[in-house]
Amino acid sequence: MLLYVATSNPGKLRDFSTAAANATIADRITILPLPGLSEIPAPAEDQPTFEGNAILKARFYSRHAPGQIVLADDSGLEVDCLNGEPGVRSARYADDIGFPDTFSSTPDERNNAALLRAMDGIPPNCRHARYRCVLAAARDGEILHTASGTVEGMILLAPQGEGGFGYDPLFFLPELNKAMSEIDLETKLTLSHRGRALASLLITLSTPN
Fold it and tell me: Could you give all domains of the chain from N- to C-terminal order, each with its CATH number?
């Protein structure tokens, strides 16, 4: 089974490829980035939910690969004490709250700094959060299936670790006593919200109708 993914993010592609390689289904899965993605104008991700944006993107991008199954995800961080923010705006959180763009050198660092500012004064036991991913599969503009995956954690008071991407330096896993950015790749992939979403989706896609 060949699946194209509508992303050029190396972290996402790694998560999806590893999850596909470890999938306990009969079909052999090949994950590839959607050809020519950089030349396709991106659709407006204007839906209020992860599922809405994943479906929107899967429908849109599948029309650029006729006959093929195209996957699109929407994923991000939900913080309970911020009423689920950053949520669907996780990649643009600093912009949304007007956080200074001169503060940090990368978008990830700026978003992390913005999150810490928003949570200033919130005690450690009230900083529960989760990574959530919703994944949609489409062919020729028609949705085939959707699936979701989550991983639960806490938001730290300061970044830890050098690995990962996004909010990983702030996302603490109590059961491992480490930030997501501090765990090895193999362990991370067993916990990945994207990996869990893809594993669920692959079971559905490989099951005969």
Answer: 2-206 (3.90.950.10)
